[in-house]
Amino acid sequence: MKYSYFSTDRAGRLEYHYQALYNNRSVARIKGSHSRGLFTTIWNPYNNTRQWYWVDEEDNIRHVSEHRRYNNIDWYGAMNDHKKRSKENYNSSHWIARKYCWDNPEELEMTVKDNFSIFYKVFDKFFECDHILHPEALLGYHGYTKPDREGLSMNDALEQDIKYLNVDLDYSISELKKRKNFIVYKEDIRHWARSWFLGGGQVGDDYEVYYNMIACRLNSARKYTTSIQIALDRYNIPYETWSLDSGDYHAFGFTKLFDRYVTEGSETILKEHLHYMVDDWIDRYMSENP
What we know:
This protein has ten helices and eight strands. By secondary structure, it is α/β, with parallel strands linked by helices. It has one domain (3-188, 236-268). Helix 6 packs parallel to helix 9 (207-234), helix 8 (189-199) packs across helix 9 and helix 8 crosses helix 10 (278-288). The radius of gyration is 19 Å and the shape is globular.
């Protein structure tokens, strides 16, 4: 059986990603570049490769593959490096953790383009993988604005069926129906709020602006579960909901498990001297958004 992991940011993707590789399963992450365009990274323990697919400036689909060994990874050491500040993380001795799993080829960074018209032609490579992150892109949902900014948000696009990415919709629906699709949600909202206030965005000099930004993004993340269900129901794609707090990771076909929350504290953006403010922000958020 193959699996799709529908989730928002700060919703367990890193732990799921590492659990899958730890169990010798392949993972495809369909995600845009932080700066330029859409690409997919595939980690494949079966043939000891890490691969990338993208569309370049001349509208060609590009592919790069490198040899990587998965049988000698220090998993806990790698996960701990995700908890370091960027300067220390970028110098990680663990290839899989470097740049928080965004250590891409220079060739990709120099040529990737936001061309959504032909990328679907390599979706078959992604559906071959055991586990898929950001699978909503396979249905065309990609490229929206953050919920605290002006523009179309992911949730609105899912509910209104507005797609920016050109796809072969019948093919994607057919392939998703062959998989076990999990929609991830969080029961412990206070715990989730801590993660968001620590790593959900950049803080400036105005802490009230930061609080409102994170509160908006967290509210949107809480709504995502309903929005993605509307989208999947539209195409009769079966799914299950799965709790980050009480769900059993064996549901994803894993036989070897890390301790729950092993990646907690990863990719923290908020500087340490501001951490003392987090508890008050959480208390305020919970009182305003029960």
